[in-house]
Amino acid sequence: MIEYLLEIIPYILEGFKMTFGVFFITLVLSIPLGLLLLYLSKFKFLEMIISGFTWIMRGTPLILQLYFFVFALPILVPGFITKNAIIGASVAFVLNYSAYFTEIFKGGLLAIDKGQWEAAKALKLNDFQTMYYVILPQMFRNVLYALSNEVISLVKDTSLITVVGLGEIFRNAKELLLRDLRSEALLIVGIIYLLFTFVVILVFKQFERKMRLKV
Amino acid sequence: MKKILGLFIILLFITGCSSKAESSVDDSLDKIIEKKAFKIGHTDYPPFGMLDKGVSIGFDIDIAKEVAKRLGVDFQTKYIDWDSKQFELDNGNIDAIWNGFTITKEREKQITFTKPYFDNHIVMMSLKGNTYTSLDDLKDKVVGVELQSSGQIAIEEKTEVNESIKEMMKFTGVSEALMALKTGGIDVIVVDENFARYVSSKESSLYEISSARFNPENYGVGVKKGSQKLADKIDELIDEMIADGTAGEISIKWFNEDMISR
């Protein structure tokens, strides 16, 4: 048993590069993109487009979006860059998550009392200062819990990229399951996801402490 | 932490034991007769097994249906996730895996097979205009396979070929591999000849199949490990169907020729 585990764990972990890669790219791109979309939606003519975008991205399954960006788009738009499955899958993830993030940020923004803006104005802060020192810190504090939920979901959603042929930890575990017809690999991969989400939770705990949230 | 470790050990124990638990008496055939039903598991593997508006159809389905008829029991099908076939069989959700199921040494450790009834080879399938004549042509190509399929194994066991290819992309289903071939995400699929012929018969203007065929293999019916009596009975009935021409007729219906080979 132990021998078998030692044989399969390195192979499963080989897929972690891909799992973490998609996770990391999505995280670092979709949060700024979510903020940008929130900013742009203050313009009336863009607001419609952006709410249409979030409706589509939140209203259809991520797995379907993966098929679309990897398999359908390169045919619909010949010469499209996403012939590469990794890029296609990352685009799907970034767009999907930015749609969720922008809605979460919007919620955090609306929860801020109007008095905060008025107070900033009274202190003669300019627009940038108001945003940077007064509004954004409060917004991030408001959304911290929703954000940690999303990031944990993201960890697990990375397993969906198996459908477009990319080898991440879940795919590798499934391969071992099929090769050896033994199920230990699934247990191992479950533990890896648990450890991964555990680290995410720890990081968010640090943020909480920094923002001095009373729970 | 201790609790978690304990749970982990228990889980390992369960997964380790489950495969060993087997009854000593082989009542596999009696059970089928007793419950008056024979249930096979299949997935999308045309023309052997597939769904048509929710109804199972295909070459294997027709053969299995006839076997159930001759057993004097109801015929039932279950559309399964191919990756979970072992669980479905071991849990007793299905009595047999009957779906162009390749007999391999590895699988024989966990599954009891009938005698072979159908031949298969591995071929290379590409888009029209890209001709692959030998395995050497795979050099520097992005090769698509279905996860842990005979195609993947055929490449991996040939170390030189495996090292010469640019990349191997493993898909959870052969339909995803086909989509990737169409988009150009992969150059070629290494796949079962029977499947490739079926696909290109549907869209003959689109695909090209290599003349080179390799890794001959056989399909068999898989039953739960140790269910020898059931396997023997299925073999007996298939032989009977071959002798009286029923099996040949079914083959002609699906392949336009008698392809059954014992």
Plain-language structure description:
The complex is a heterodimer of chains A (215) and B (262). Chain A has 215 residues and is mostly helical. Chain A has helices spanning 2-14, 16-40, 44-59, 62-76, 85-110, 114-122, 127-157, 169-180, 184-210. With 262 residues, chain B is of the alpha/beta class. Chain B is 41% helix and 26% strand. Chain B contains eleven helices and twelve strands. In chain B, strands 1, 4, 5, 6, 7, 8, 9, 10, 11 and 12 form a ten-stranded mixed β-sheet that branches. A two-stranded antiparallel sheet of chain B has the order 2-3. The longest helix of chain B is centred in the first third of the chain and has 17 residues, at 2-18. The N and C termini of chain B lie far apart (56 Å). The A-B interface holds A 1, 67, 70-71, 74-75, 83-85, 162-167, 171, 174-175, 177-184, 187, 191 and B 8, 11-12, 15-16, 18-19, 83, 86-87, 106-107, 109-111, 144, 147-148, 169-173, 176-177, 179-180, 182-186.
Write the layout of secondary structure elements.
The complex is a heterodimer of chains A (215) and B (262).
Chain A: H1 2-14, H2 16-40, H3 44-59, H4 62-76, H5 85-110, H6 114-122, H7 127-157, H8 169-180, H9 184-210
Helix pairs in contact in A: 1-8, 1-9, 2-5, 3-5, 4-5, 5-7, 7-9, 8-9
Chain B: H1 2-18, H2 28-35, E1 37-42, E2 50-52, E3 55-57, H3 59-71, E4 74-79, H4 85-90, E5 96-102, H5 105-108, E6 111-113, E7 118-127, E8 142-146, H6 150-156, H7 159-164, E9 167-171, H8 174-183, E10 188-192, H9 193-202, E11 207-209, E12 214-224, H10 228-243, H11 246-255
Parallel strand pairs in B: 1-4, 1-5, 8-9, 8-10
Antiparallel strand pairs in B: 2-3, 5-12, 6-12, 7-10, 7-11, 7-12
